[in-house]
Amino acid sequence: MPPANSDECNNTLALPVPPASFVQRLPQVLAANGQPLNPAVDTNHFDDVVRFQKIEEFIASTGRGARDWPEAVAPGTPSVPFTAATLATSGVTFTGFSSGQQTLTIPPAAPPPGTPGVTVAVQSGQQITIDNSASPPAGLGVCHSTGICNATNAELSGAETLSFKLVDATAYKLGVALKNFTPSETAQITFKLNGVQVGAVVSCTGSSNAIDLTPTVASAAFDEVVIGAGGASSFFIDAVRFCDASTSCVP
Questions:
Q1: Residue pLDDT, tens place only, 27-61
Q2: Of 85, 186, 165, 183, which is closest to residue 130 (Cα–Cα)?
Q3: Could you give the CA distance from residue 139 to residue 127 in angstroms, rounded to a whole number?
Q4: 0.90 cut: is pTM over it?
Q5: SS3 of the chain: helix, strand, coil, percent, to 5
Q6: Which residues are CB-neighbours of 76 under 8 A, at least 6 positions away?
Q7: Which of 77, 148, 169, 237 is least crowded, fewest Cβ atoms below 10 Å from its Cβ?
């Protein structure tokens, strides 16, 4: 028990006779002579220390708090068409087939539900192209970052890839509309989540409209797809559609 009339004793007094004010003191408080208080004899030495945390601090310290996961796209979210009008919303200007850019971001359209925000990217040494032979221009491809891009070299081909990454969202299905794609050609789809590959590469052949594509890992979410051309294939990508698990994902 703390000695009578000490601060620590007064703090314990019950109602209706509480102390005039409660005293808080750190354990290392010094006596009047500048020396540490002696717990054996000094009445103002506090030997009972109460430590506390706010509940939100405690939860955070355990790593069990809610995390800000990106939400899945809404049911019925439409395709993102790679038309000149849609691509203009990214702020990138195409000259002929060329953009001169390795990345561009198409902002989300107003819900409900609007097209999601998507960042398009190519590898180092490449640039994003548009099929300028179409009227109006539409469809994305890849060309070397230097030299002239034209109808012959602007399609996605060889070791080139186009990445399509959702902005703050995830999906469970994918639809892709391919242009200049013949039944003998192949598109290769790599699904990713937070930059990590999800399952094996998925090969698509036979149809220019690839629908309801999913990772080879059952019920896996993804936020990015990387599309390449298999073998001697070459084509443009007219649209991509990111879908939730319940939507029939036709681009």
A1: 555 555 666 666 666 666 665 556 667 787 777 77
A2: 85
A3: 14
A4: no
A5: 5, 30, 60
A6: 113, 247
A7: 148
